[in-house]
Amino acid sequence: MALRESRPGPTSETSSPALAGVPRELWDRLHGRGRRLLLLDYDGTLAPFHIHRDRAHVPPNTLQLLRALAASPRTSVAVVSGRPIDELDRLIGDPKLRVHWIGEHGWEERAPGGDTRQHPLSEEARLGLDGAWKAIGARGLQSRVEKKRTGLVLHTRGLFPDADDSLHRATEAVWLPWTERAPLRLSTIHGGLELRAVGRDKGLATLDLHRRHGDVALVVYVGDDETDEDAFKALADRGFGIRVGKDDGPTSAHGRLPKPETMDEFLARWLDSESVSTPSSGARG
């Protein structure tokens, strides 16, 4: 599906070129009454990409805005990532941040103040991932692969383009047959390739969280990757998907932000709307 046409927003929003790709209807509904649900991807959205994944931190000003928004009585915030939740904890380093955490594309989650819950992985998927891990080891490529409970990720960021393409093709040749032997899916991601279990994804996680929050006036998902397209599709008729980045390829998102650095303006604009009206009743997640 091609990127949906977005109309310019109100004058205050369009004064910033960074927000020009956000649909006007989103701003209109944001300034209305009712509670809202905001879901944010991590890498390439909240945190700019870094060659070293363990250094991909949320910029201080973005984190400050995120804290303020998460403390708001009107908006419930969720961070949705392919990373495990304990890895996000280390990167953000704020145990008091009141957000709903969703890790490994929806295979694990933690509500504010709660414990991490893992969705069970099928034996077929587990065995398939073990086999794919051993197969990539036989090719001597495990040093570039991250092993998670529900997936394997080839990281190629920082390589020269030719080396990146060669490694990508070699890994794809090893992993693709495993999508026919086990309930696994293979996806190209920014800076790599991911083989992960079928059954949970960011779209299902978004719909589950939306359902548990009950009657919210607005739900928005912001992400940058192919794995975020599942969430954009899930919100096609329920809310808004915003894709981050200059890639102008096909997307199911409703609008765009040009780069992660523009998240500050987006979050600040959202935060400014918090005092517009009194929230309707409903439970926070």
What does this protein structure show overall?
- The structure is a single chain.
- With 285 residues, the chain is of the alpha/beta class.
- It folds into 2 domains: 35-67 and 74-119 and 203-274, Rossmann fold (3-Layer(aba) Sandwich); 123-197, Alpha-Beta Plaits.
- The chain contains 10 helices and 12 strands.
- The longest helix is centred in the middle third of the chain and has 16 residues, at 123-138.
Largest sheet: 8 strands, mixed
Q: Mind telling me the CATH class of the largest domain?
A: Alpha Beta
Helical fraction: 25-40%
Strand line-up in the sheet with most strands: 5-4-3-2-1-10-11-12
Shape category = globular
Task: Give helix and strand order, one letter per element, not per position.
Answer: HHEHEHEEEHEEHHEEHEHEEH
Structural class: alpha/beta
Give the topology.
Blueprint: H1 11-14, H2 24-30, E1 36-41, H3 60-70, E2 75-80, H4 85-92, E3 100-103, E4 108-110, E5 117-118, H5 123-138, E6 145-147, E7 151-155, H6 161-175, H7 178-181, E8 184-189, E9 192-197, H8 202-212, E10 218-223, H9 229-234, E11 240-244, E12 255-257, H10 263-272
Parallel strand pairs: 1-2, 1-10, 2-3, 10-11, 11-12
Antiparallel strand pairs: 3-4, 4-5, 6-7, 7-9, 8-9
Helix pairs in contact: 3-10
